[in-house]
């Protein structure tokens, strides 16, 4: 099992013919993702060869869905055009839009997130690494070679880099799915959305939640865990050494006074039974301990 993305998912890539789109489409195909087409109005009717596999280019998301039955789109469209690309995907009725693009203006993200909320489209991102269900499909930029083994851990993370590190450290256990939700101030899928999906997934036995300073998403996740999650959760909060009032990497990672600090988030999670590591490696050890797996020497 997996959440949001399975081997049955048929994936379009908006911006496939750009440099980043080409690079990561090739990686997605190598990981076994069923990439059924790209979208570029200026190159409609053409195809792109990826190591012997010809992937057609469609003029619109709607055309791609009509021709292939696609239910996922991965967005590599540059920031000035990303809002229109996401709205196009929503209008076409896509089930899942994974918005990789970094640097989208917050106002644009607010607009397309609000637009999607009135539809059946789930948005992951923006400014995220996407998601992977090892052994099934990979939609985004998560390196597939660090997570080849399906397993019983579900991972939801604000940070792409920490997603990769925890997946590497726990690669022998394996993952049902790993979801990078992005660290911008406005994102579609939240920690809570992923927690709910992992709670409902029979093959996910333990959930890893990675947060970071800024905002109150982790505190809200803690409240949700207390009321709705029966599976064990292990957490990590990035930013314990961040100075107050400074942005740290992600646009949403800013601390004002005592609000949004790593310590406050850790306390909120621990208060509802979540074990929180002080480093990514310690977090991995906590997972192994909770699953009663011997720690590698």
Keywords summarizing the entry:
7-stranded mixed beta sheet; 9 helices; 297 residues; 14 strands; alpha/beta
Structural description of this entry:
By secondary structure, the protein is α/β, with parallel strands linked by helices. It is built from nine helices and 14 strands. The chain has helices at about 20-30, 60-70, 80-90, 105-115, 160-170, 190-200, 215-230, 260-270, 280-290, and strands spanning about 10-15, 35-40, 45-50, 55-60, 70-75, 95-100, 120-125, 130-135, 135-140, 150-155, 175-180, 205-210, 235-240, 275. Helix 3 packs parallel to helix 4 and helix 7 (about 215-230) packs parallel to helix 8 (about 260-270). The protein starts with 9 loop residues before the first strand and ends in a 7-residue tail after the last helix.
Write the layout of secondary structure elements.
Layout: E1 10-14, H1 19-30, E2 34-39, E3 47-50, E4 53-58, H2 61-68, E5 72-75, H3 79-92, E6 96-99, H4 106-117, E7 122-124, E8 130-133, E9 137-140, E10 150-157, H5 160-169, E11 175-180, H6 191-200, E12 206-212, H7 217-228, E13 233-238, H8 262-270, E14 275-277, H9 280-290
Parallel strand pairs: 1-2, 1-5, 2-4, 5-6, 6-7, 10-11, 10-12, 12-13, 13-14
Antiparallel strand pairs: 3-4, 8-9, 8-11
Helix pairs in contact: 3-4, 5-9, 6-7, 7-8
